[in-house]
Fold this protein.
Amino acid sequence: MIELIDLTKSYGRIRAVNGVTFTAEPGRVTGFLGLNGSGKTTTLRMLLGLTRPTSGTALINKVRYRELRDPARHVGAVLEQGISHPGQSGRAHLVTHALLSGVARNRVDPLLAYVGLADAAHQRCGAYSLGMRQRLAVATALLGDPPVLVLDEPANGLDPEGIAWLRELLRAHARKGGTVLIASHLLAELAQLIDDVVVISDGTVRYVAPLAQLYGSTSARLRIRGRDPERLSRALQAAGALVGTDGGALDVTGLTPEEAGDIAFEAQVPIYELVRDSPNLEQLFLDLVTAANAEAVR
Amino acid sequence: MIAVVRSELYRLSTTRSSAMSLAVVSALGITLGTVSADFWALIAGAGAFGFGAIGVTQHFQHRTAVLLYLTRQRRIPVLLAQLVTALIVSVGFTAVSGASVLARGYHEEYLTTLLVAPVMAVLGAAGGAIARSATVLFVGFTAWIVFVEAAYGRMREPFPFSAYLDATTGDLDKLPVFLGWALAAVVGALFAVRRDLTGD
């Protein structure tokens, strides 16, 4: 379990992270969402003991990172963009870290195969693509078989196949009872992966909840296209719906698809298209951030 | 600490550029040693400083310091292990590069340099931990030697590189001066190593 309690980091007068508090539970994937510069990376660096907090506490399984014995066996981290020495081979990189963390060297080759780098094991890291370097970073994080994984923008540079692979890897880790905290600004990728969501903007946490709750907190929106949009719009509004339009189709909130279909039938407007717009994590995130910014201005 | 030393030595031996430069500078030392023991001592000192500095600064240049400090959170033992690694590498490098000096019968010069050059490696490694950049360190140290030690001190004042050269040429009274500079750099590094690791 990861616990962040009132974590704050100031650089002079600037508060990069301001009283961040949330928990990432075992068996779940927690998404830490924020735009670039919102404080995600600084928060993760404080969690991992790379940056000293100005105040507050970050705990992993009830212990500060700096106090963990054999941290590689407790926490695996993927930070920045595939860190490795360009003059070392992928295999030598992993052996170096196996020696450093006291992990058996015989874990290296199976891990390279697991992340799909067996064929490139003896190639210099400098010749790796960004996606290969990210795979190597994941292998480095998994060296000690840790129950907690902390990842900062791990999908950067991965191709669609790589992203699907990473998604399955992280879901499998959570299914086995592991804790996964993943920071990203690629919201569409996270929507298919995370169980819980933490939204941060301007260094302040704006929202903490299960993803399902975030989706449930918004009204479902319908997109309706019919022969006579004006008559249909009037009929839907008369039934209490909120109706907007992009010129071609109507965006309707406040009605179920069944209700909208019945109203169109009664109004004798043929319907060509009626779909429910699934809540969009990107839109929800932007709504939350915009609302928070507006509140800050007031 | 032993794990860090083993890991650092393995990293050095498997990083092509590091292994190549070690081989090239050793060959240069052997060649210059056939001409003059003093030339060899100069190369041994400069090489030891360079290998000590690069061993530490490479971690910051390629961001592997992040992985190092994630695995070993107590930074002072990590720094001490890096200094020990610099010592081990420089002893090996000095011993091999001085083969021609030894063969020519300059036993005293060989042994004195073998004793003093590793201190230069410690100075380089500690300087690397403070500067966190090989370029900054090398430019800064070169400027120091040219303007302070050579132009101002005429290589006679108790400054680090002057003291190193004096010590390797048999003036062992200068060894404590040189050790003092190295110790001061290590103390500076012990404080500097606590700084945050900033993002890239």
